[in-house]
Design goal:
The chain is elongated, with a radius of gyration of 20 Å. By secondary structure, the protein is mainly α. It has 10 helices and no strands. It starts with 7 loop residues before the first helix and ends with a helix. The chain folds into 2 domains: 1-51, Arc Repressor Mutant, subunit A (Orthogonal Bundle), CATH 1.10.10.60; 58-213, Tetracycline Repressor, domain 2, CATH 1.10.357.10. Pfam families: TetR_C_39, TetR_N.
């Protein structure tokens, strides 16, 4: 029998793929590391070589899932041809209308036994995306479009709201239900960013994104 040798990257991703599949089927709390290695047909030591614990594996899985989303945010937020308003419009449309289908990535977190993964997702989202949103807020202040006293705290609040109240991995809202909840506090966002009333109307945001991003 020919022995198949996999690179460290391939083996690591294989572990994450298997864990993601089992977390979707059984939930994080009900999946053991033995379940993962048994399905893979490898020894326990193989898993622990790459991940010190089940929690470390979970953090790595969420980080991998956020990587593509963060790359999209980074490309938009640091695009020097876009205004801060065009960028915040893109974020609203990206999160609410889901033109790229990124919401589906986290649908498995709705499983009753995935509460730990949902918590990890929320913490990583705040930690990874707050610096990006802070830079966007600073740009908006410089352009005179936003009037924000504390760009970092506003970024944290914005992310917390988007990724908690309207989060499909936490609540089983459909698209219309998510949008209705954001519309209900649209004036709060306008006050938060210091923009005129109606500036964050979803129809205006969508039109801005349609022109600039073709969504």
């Amino acid at each position: 029998m020919i022995r198949v040798t996999k690179s460290a990257s391939e083996r690591r991703n294989e572990i994450l793929d298997t864990a993601e599949s089992l977390f979707s089927e059984k939930g994080y709390e009900k999946t053991s590391t033995t379940d993962i290695t048994k399905r893979m047909g490898v020894a326990q030591g193989t898993l622990y070589y790459y991940f010190k614990s089940k929690e470390a594996l979970a953090n790595a899985l969420i980080d991998r899932q956020l990587k593509g989303i963060k790359q999209e945010f980074t490309e938009v937020i640091y695009n020097e041809t876009l205004t801060a308003y065009e960028k915040i419009a893109w974020i609203f449309v990206y999160e609410l209308d889901d033109p790229t289908g990124h919401v589906e990535i986290f649908k498995y977190l709705q499983h009753d036994s995935n509460a730990t993964l949902r918590q990890i997702l929320h913490v990583q989202t705040i930690c990874q995306f707050t610096p990006l949103l802070t830079d966007l807020n600073i740009q908006g202040n410089k352009e005179g479009l936003f009037h924000i006293e504390n760009p970092t705290l506003v970024a944290e609040f914005f992310l917390s709201t988007i990724h908690h109240w309207v989060d499909s991995s936490l609540f089983k809202w459909n698209k219309d239900e998510r949008i209705a909840r954001i519309k209900a506090i649209q004036s709060t966002f306008e006050h938060l960013f210091g923009v005129p009333h109606g500036k964050f109307d979803l129809s205006l945001l969508r039109q801005t994104v349609k022109v600039k991003f073709n969504y």
